[in-house]
Structure of Globin:
Amino acid sequence: MTSTPDPDPTYTRADTFYAAVGGEATFRRLVGAFYAGVAEDPELRALYPEEDLGPATERLTLFLIQYWGGPTTYSERRGHPRLRMRHVPFAIDSAQRDRWLHHMRAALDGLQLPAAYEQTLWDYLVGAADSLRNVRDA
């Protein structure tokens, strides 16, 4: 069995959203700030079974990098994203979605991206978060 090497850290494609917003460093800052908020939120933190949020941080970072046009490391390591399937074990209702979006909004605001890029990323995050709800609200 051979392992897939890590992508070239100088990877750039100027025609991607990934490159336009600053590449890997931007997504690492976004996800790092997001999980800092999650760590301090007992209600949302309960959805993360791992004691260490580091692996979740890495998975989300690699997923977003790939989704927005960066290296395909996520799929090389984990296969197809299958987001809904991967989230089925967790009861996610509107309250959890809203907590998730609260922390992601704060993290996104911290990036200070140009308005068009910020809106594009936010629209995706809102849609993705909403699509993962799997518990009907009371």
